[in-house]
């Protein structure tokens, strides 16, 4: 089974980029964070992976899981 690729939305200069975690190049670059989040969410849902949204300082401000989470949640 292929390892799932988590998705990062992060700033890139005056723009926002969407890329697979630890990738060297962005999948796509957007003018607004909102556009980047929408595209990143689509990718994460398609890949059943995690979406990490970072602020301008590079800190994770939000994270969402679109994978196979246990139900009910453990713990």
Automatic annotation (TrEMBL):
Residues 1-24, 50-75 are annotated as: Disordered. Pfam families: DUF2188. It comes from Gracilimonas mengyeensis. It comes from the Bacteria. This is DUF2188 domain-containing protein.
